[in-house]
Amino acid sequence: MANVSFIYAHPDDETFLSAGFIRQLADAGHPPSMLLSTRGDAGNKNGDYIHWSREQLGELREREMSRAAEILGLAEVEYLGLPDGKTAEADESTFLEGVIRFINHHRPRTLVTFPLDGGNRHPDHMAISRMTTKAVLSGRCPSVEQLYYIMSAALAEEGRKPTFQLDVERQWSMKADALRAHDSQKLAIGRYFGPLDTFPENRRYESFILAWELGEIWPEKDAEQALRELDLLQEN
Ligand SMILES: [Zn+2]
């Protein structure tokens, strides 16, 4: 049975990169859990909250995340509460222990996180990828059999291919609603996806690459097999 946890940095990462995947898991009867390293407390991208403290912004983004989690079908969202934008400077052993504690509490078989390049070189994305990878490789998370990364341009340039891709066109209204839940991020969302009432052809696929499985790095696996293991084959 699929037991999947997602580990990201900020409220909204999950929806940008994996709304369709999360919803399909939930619909298959396996609502995933998620850990975020921050509450997104520096996320004042719209300029709407210029007089807000980090504490207030963090609360706002947690509320937005709760709404998105309902839409996506996430079973649970936990936070490490590290300072947004500065997690790369956090005490490494505390950070790592927090990730390991989350994993051993939920005991996922499959983990999904950013690639080591963060997808976009964001230092928080790179830090949580590194910590999650370290946690898996530490041997201290015995439930974990597979680690997936979000496919990135940097990985493609290295000649790597996604293990599987999900076409999210049929799920677009759900994904758009989850994006709208992250209202404080609407400028960044608009830049990436365009107007949410139109399906963005250039964002058709959510793409994932198997980075590690039972001790093997970059195992080869065909998409059908990967989806069967995740109990998602009937969806595609
Ligand atoms: Zn992010």
Automatic annotation (TrEMBL):
It holds the Pfam family PIG-L. Transmembrane segments: none annotated. It comes from the Bacteria. InterPro entries: GlcNAc_PI_deacetylase-related, LmbE-like_dom_sf. GO terms for molecular function: hydrolase activity, acting on carbon-nitrogen (but not peptide) bonds, in linear amides. PANTHER family: N-ACETYLGLUCOSAMINYL-PHOSPHATIDYLINOSITOL DE-N-ACETYLASE, N-ACETYLGLUCOSAMINYL-PHOSPHATIDYLINOSITOL DE-N-ACETYLASE-RELATED. This is PIG-L family deacetylase. It comes from Paenibacillus cremeus.
